[in-house]
Structure formats: structure tokens, C-alpha cells
């Protein structure tokens, strides 16, 4: 390969099993790795600043060309725990919802559920920074990632988006996938997917080096997040993308 493949990943706890196996792996000789939050690396992939990124699948329609290059993803086949609508009141009493600026897919999923499943008449408010302190009264908030695991200790009402998607469609959900904006060599793709698999098969080792007192990471990595990109997950992803057209 003439140059190293530029790869961007998310800096959340949920990516640690996927990234664990990259250390000392032969694929590292083929790539440059950077980390940031989902919406940021999504824009980098759209703009061509990186070649591959673990991105929210909602950006797929914005890409001129896309290839899913790994057998692993950030998915869920039930409650995901870290992508939730948090509220002080039940769903039917919510008047406004603050949207997490860090992930396009979670916001898009929330909009689908609000419109198609819950049928709520709530005002949706974009954010650009911290907003969790505004989640009170009839104002709810969509919070994702590590901050969502913390918010679980604060809000009395928690609506898990993956769980409600499953109730709505009977399909699993894919939040993020490894997507490239150009064709890549088969050798790279094989090595890349192999590196992903190492942490997935060594969850105790991943948990051991990521101390996190707010939520049990063994539960999170083995019961909440579902990493293999299965045919049913691909089906769920296509169903979700059909709502974005």
C-alpha cells in the first residue's frame, strides 16, 4: 500500500473491545488511528479527511460511496443502556427533548421513534454543549455514550432507544459500523476485522483495564452491546435507513 489508511474511531467505552486488539497487531503498520466523538469523525469521513471510520450509520446517505469493512459493529439486540431518552416524567407528559449533539444516528433514531412509534408531540431542541442540567420537569433529553451511563443514576424515567426500536420493528439495531469511503485492499480488511475480534473474545481483559464505577462493564459489553454484524443487524440497519430517505 502506498500510504497508511487513515482510521478514525469513537472515544467511548463501547469501542474499547473493538480497539483492544489493535495494539501490537500487524494491521497497525497499515493505518493511522485517531479518536473523537461520533458526529466529528462522521464529518471527517464525509469530507474525505479519513478513509475509514467507526461512524453512526445515519451518515450513510450523505456518503458518495461507502463500504462496510468489518464483521463487527456497535449494535444491540435489546436494551443498549447508553443511548436513552431521560426524563423526570412519563413519555406522554414530555413537552421538549434536548438532542445529543454527539451522534447523528441516535438523534435520527429518536426522531423515528417519536414520530412512528411513540407518536409524541414534543419540541426537539438541538444542542452544542452540555445540556444534562436542563433535563427536568417536562423537559427530557437524549443522552448517549458514557454520559448516558452516568445519567442513569439521575433520571427516574429511562427510555432505552434500542429496546424501543426492537419493540417497534422486531429487528436489532446498528448504531455505528466501520465504513470506508473508498475501496480498500482485501488484505487490509481481513487484518482489520481480525484486530476487531481480539477484544470481543477477551472481554475480561478489556474490562480489567477500563475501571468504571458507574456501570458494570461486563454486563455492558456482553449483554447490552452486541458486536457481531449479523445478517439480522444488516436488515435492521436497512430498515432504519429507509426512514431517513
From TrEMBL:
**Annotated Gene Ontology MF terms?**
hydro-lyase activity
Pathway assignment reads: Quinol/quinone metabolism; menaquinone biosynthesis
Q: What class of enzyme is it?
A: lyase
Q: Which reaction does it catalyse?
A: chorismate = 3-[(1-carboxyvinyl)-oxy]benzoate + H2O
Has keyword Cell membrane? no
Per its UniProt record, what Pfam families does this chain match? VitK2_biosynth (PF02621)
- Annotated keywords: Lyase, Menaquinone biosynthesis
Record keyword Disulfide bond present: no
What is an annotated GO biological process for this record, any one? menaquinone biosynthetic process
**Its Enzyme Commission number?**
4.2.1.151
| Family matches, as PANTHER family | CHORISMATE DEHYDRATASE
Family, per the entry?
A: Belongs to the MqnA/MqnD family. MqnA subfamily.
Q: What does this protein do?
A: Catalyzes the dehydration of chorismate into 3-[(1-carboxyvinyl)oxy]benzoate, a step in the biosynthesis of menaquinone (MK, vitamin K2).
Q: What is this protein called?
A: Chorismate dehydratase
The species this protein belongs to is Chitinophaga ginsengisoli
Q: What is the lineage of its organism?
A: Bacteria, Pseudomonadati, Bacteroidota, Chitinophagia, Chitinophagales
Amino acid at each position: 500500500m502506498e500510504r497508511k489508511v487513515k482510521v478514525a474511531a469513537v472515544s467511548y467505552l463501547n469501542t474499547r473491545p473493538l480497539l483492544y486488539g489493535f495494539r501490537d497487531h500487524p494491521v497497525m503498520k497499515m493505518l493511522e488511528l485517531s479518536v473523537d466523538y461520533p458526529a466529528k469523525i462522521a464529518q471527517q469521513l464525509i469530507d474525505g479527511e479519513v478513509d475509514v471510520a467507526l461512524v453512526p450509520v445515519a451518515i450513510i446517505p450523505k456518503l458518495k460511496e461507502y463500504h462496510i469493512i468489518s464483521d463487527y459493529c456497535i449494535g444491540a439486540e435489546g436494551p443498549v443502556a447508553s443511548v436513552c431518552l431521560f426524563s423526570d416524567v412519563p413519555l406522554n407528559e414530555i413537552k421538549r427533548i434536548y438532542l445529543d449533539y454527539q451522534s447523528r444516528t441516535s438523534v435520527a433514531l429518536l426522531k423515528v421513534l417519536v414520530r412512528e412509534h411513540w407518536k409524541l408531540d414534543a419540541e426537539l431542541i438541538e444542542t452544542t454543549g452540555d445540556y444534562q442540567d436542563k433535563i427536568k420537569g417536562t423537559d427530557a433529553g437524549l443522552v448517549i455514550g458514557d454520559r448516558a451511563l452516568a445519567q442513569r443514576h439521575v433520571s427516574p424515567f429511562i427510555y432505552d432507544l434500542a429496546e424501543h426500536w426492537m419493540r417497534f420493528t422486531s429487528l436489532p439495531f446498528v448504531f455505528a459500523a466501520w465504513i470506508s469511503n473508498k475501496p480498500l485492499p482485501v488484505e487490509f480488511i481481513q487484518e482489520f476485522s481480525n484486530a476487531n475480534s481480539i477484544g470481543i473474545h477477551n472481554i475480561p481483559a478489556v474490562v480489567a483495564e477500563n475501571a468504571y464505577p458507574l456501570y458494570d462493564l461486563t454486563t455492558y459489553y456482553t449483554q447490552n452491546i452486541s458486536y457481531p454484524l449479523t445478517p439480522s443487524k444488516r436488515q435492521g440497519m436497512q430498515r432504519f435507513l429507509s426512514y431517513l430517505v
